[in-house]
Amino acid sequence: MYRLLIFTLILASWLIFSGFFDAFHIGLGILCAGIVTWISSDLLFEDRSKSIGGRLQELFRLPSYLVWLLWQIVLANVYMLKLALTPGGLEEVSPRIVRFKTKLKSDFARFVLAQSITLTPGTVTIKIVGDEFYVHAISKAAADGLDGAMEGWIAHVYEPDLEKEQP
User: Fold this and answer.
1) pTM of the model
2) Which of 3, 23, 62, 164 has its CA 20 to 30 A from that of 73?
3) Do 106 and 156 lie in a common domain?
């Protein structure tokens, strides 16, 4: 059932983005969607025990996180611009490696956290070992930005049970 769903989503994407609905292109879409499904269907969701309702909750909670993340990216860009253009900005630059533990349980939630950190200017996730993240931050202010708010948002989207456990 899962592979059929993945195949259908990939084929629908193919048809929408190609814009061609003749036999050749539909046949090619079916062939490509089949190959991609066969090769990579286990990459999308490791935990397939979640119900459709759980996945829909994730889908509805995701936009609020993406809006928050976009705002954080804007703020980080403004901060980086300040570092680059103000006379005393370079004095504030003090690269460091920050190590912290995450409470996120699923690999996918940790992946989203790592990518979100890297998308935010001034920070790059360089290593993940179990529940420990190693992040390069360009300054103390960028390192202080790793205060757990992003982790909380991701827990809200992907692990609402974990969010309830936290005081």
Assistant:
1) 0.73
2) 164
3) yes
- Kindly report the number of other CB atoms within 10 A of residue 81's CB atom: 12
108 and 160 share one domain = yes
pLDDT of the residue at 150: 93
Residues 91, 140 share a domain: yes
> Are 119 and 147 within one domain?
yes
Q: How many other C-beta atoms are found inside a 10 Å radius of the C-beta of residue 139?
A: 20
Condensed to tens digits (0 to 9), the pLDDT of residues 15-64 reads 999 888 899 989 999 999 999 888 876 665 555 666 777 778 888 888 99
20 and 59 belong to one structural domain:
no
Q: Per-residue confidence at 167, pLDDT binned at 50, 70, 90?
A: very low
- Whether residues 100 and 143 fall in one domain: yes
Element (H, E) at 100: strand 93-101
Long-range contact list for 38-46, CB < 8 A, 24+ apart? Answer: 41/2, 41/3, 41/6, 41/7, 44/6, 45/2, 45/108, 46/106, 46/107, 46/108
Q: Are residues 40 and 57 in the same domain?
A: no
Segment 58-114, tens digit of pLDDT: 888 889 999 999 999 999 999 999 999 998 888 889 999 999 999 998 888 899 999
Structural domain boundaries, residue 34 = 2-44
